[in-house]
Amino acid sequence: MTRFQYNNAVRDLLGDETNPAAEFPPENEVDGYRTNAAANPVNPLLVERYLMVAESVAARAATEQLHTIAPCASGNESVCGQEFARAFAERAFRRPVTENELAPLAQGAIV
């Protein structure tokens, strides 16, 4: 995923417009494309930056936008967590999710 794609995904899924991928090293361009996996191998610096940025994005989402991205109308946190996991996964995957895909996500969402 390019920095541009990462920023767009974070914006679309969480409403975060801080362009967090600016912290990532720039991609190498091959024939006008920046998505060439062979030219952009994963390295320890990139992994470290992804983790750092993901933690920062998650913290902002949890403190500033939790009720917007994960509203809980029923009051039952377990049910709300499962509903959130399904809705968020479908937005992230841009398609319906299977029960096998949802199971580990919903399990992590149970409070």
Summary, kept brief:
The chain is mainly α and 111 residues long.
Descriptive notes:
The chain has 111 residues and is mainly alpha-helical. It has two domains: 3-64, no CATH class; 70-109, no CATH class. It is built from five helices and no strands. The protein has helices at residues 3-14, 44-64, 66-69, 77-93, 99-109. The longest helix is centred in the middle third of the chain and has 21 residues, at 44-64.
Query: How much is the radius of gyration in Å?
Result: 16 Å
Content-based structural category: mainly alpha
How is the main sheet built? none
**N-to-C order of helices and strands:** HHHHH
Shape: elongated
Count of alpha and pi helical runs: 5
Give a quick set of tags describing it.
111 residues; mainly alpha; 2 domains; elongated
List the helices and strands and how they pair.
Elements: H1 3-14, H2 44-64, H3 66-69, H4 77-93, H5 99-109
Helix pairs in contact: 4-5
